């Protein structure tokens, strides 16, 4: 189960790196516009907000990578903390911004968190 947990945490970290890239650098281009559903004007107007969100997603990814490389018990605790942050942020986003976030962020984050807790 430890290998499964490690792979899931790495995938969640990679997902959040991708979200960082889309929100910080591709918001006004195809990937960002597809994700948001915004027209060019709205994408331009919301780009600073998206970049801020992207930065936070980068912090989540960095924390998950830290959890993967740190020795236990620190690594385990860091993974639990940052995966919990992923889930909480996703629930908030799913309830306030877009329900797709519940499937795209909360479900994978919760599965990874469960795997880490079981492996722990």
Number of DSSP strands?
0
Using only CA atoms, what is the Rg? 15 Å
Please provide the ordered H/E string of secondary-structure elements.
HHHHH
Average pLDDT, rounded to a whole number, is 96
The poorly predicted ranges are: none
**Globular, elongated, flat, extended or rod-shaped: what is the shape?**
elongated
The structure class reads: mainly alpha
Distance between the termini: 9 Å
Largest sheet: none
Contiguous helical run count: 5
Q: Estimate the strand proportion.
A: under 5%
Q: How helix-rich are the residues, as a percent range? A: over 70%
Compile the SSE list and pairings.
Blueprint: H1 2-25, H2 30-36, H3 40-69, H4 74-96, H5 100-119
Helix pairs in contact: 1-3, 1-5, 3-4, 4-5
Pick out its properties:
120 residues, mainly alpha, 87% helix, elongated
In a nutshell, what does this entry contain?
Helices cover 87% and strands 0% of the residues. With 120 residues, the chain is mostly helical.
Describe this protein's structure:
The protein is mainly α and 120 residues long. Helix content is 87%, strand content 0%. It has five helices and no strands. The protein is elongated, with a radius of gyration of 15 Å. The mean pLDDT is 96.
């Amino acid at each position: 189960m430890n290998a499964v947990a490690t792979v899931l945490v790495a995938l969640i970290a990679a997902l959040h790196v991708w979200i960082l890239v889309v929100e910080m650098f591709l918001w006004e281009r195809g990937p960002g516009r597809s994700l948001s559903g915004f027209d060019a004007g709205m994408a331009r107007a919301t780009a600073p907000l998206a970049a801020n969100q992207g930065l936070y997603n980068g912090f989540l990814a960095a924390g998950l990578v830290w959890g993967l490389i740190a020795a236990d018990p620190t690594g385990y605790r860091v993974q639990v903390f940052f995966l919990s942050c992923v889930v909480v942020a996703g629930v908030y986003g799913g309830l306030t911004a877009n329900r797709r976030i519940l499937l795209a962020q909360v479900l994978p984050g919760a599965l990874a968190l469960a795997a880490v807790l079981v492996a722990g």
